[in-house]
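Ticket #4471: structure output looks truncated?

Reporter: J.K.
Steps to reproduce: submitted the chain below (266 residues) through the standard prediction queue, then opened the result file.
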Amino acid sequence: MADNIEDKQIGDTFITTVGSGDPLVVVHGGPGLDHSYLVHWLSPLENSRQLVFYDQRGCGRDRTSVEDITALKLVDQFIELARRLQNGHKVGVLTHSWGAYILYEALRRAEDLDLREIVMCSPVGLTRERFDQSGERLVSRIPENVLSEIEGSEKANDGVGVMRAALPYYVANPNSTPPISFGFYDPAVFARVVETLNTYDCRDIADRLPASTVLIYGEADIELPSATEEIHGRASVAMIDKAGHFPFAEQPQAFLGVVESFLTGS
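Returned output as attached by the reporter:
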């Protein structure tokens, strides 16, 4: 773990920074997670960029009530943070899973965003239909008894228990689950965001992407490269063997090798 971690606020958004240099904003997955599950795995990138982790509305340190959260408010939060960080810097973005949707819509809605580079890890699909299909793929992997365990954890408001039970079915090898530490998960935030996630279609964003864009998938991912095919002419695609939805934890050396080569241009 890096020893130069700093917690602070920019506007009303809680951030954690690691490293120095131009900022790379890390947009966590979910909805309903916070940034904490990513810090250990991504901190080795601190030599290439200053990593800026933040908590989406209603997650982690953010105390926004569930009733005041919508999918597009999460997009607005990211846009405001990116604008503030752009002051004298070229800002890059690294998204995981659901975080890609926030980036898609931000690119559609904020023409002033001038991003240095984009890394999307296991990005959700470019349409709502594809978003739903990846969720269906996940559920189809989970045995009935585990689905009952997850439902019980939700009723007990044990969000971390939900993620602990579901994690083996996100990864390539359920019998060798990586030690991912989820510090926060709120199923109520997930439900609220999905409820407000209107039918969306971001297949037309290719010309808003910087030339330096890479999409990273695990070979056993619930997210499929075909779900982002409309932007492949602009973005490169990397596959990580023996990995699922958390390639940075399942195959950390391979993942970091792809990202560090991309960020340094080597």
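Triage note (M.O.): checked the attachment and the full token line is present. The chain has nine helices and eight strands.
Status: closed, working as intended.
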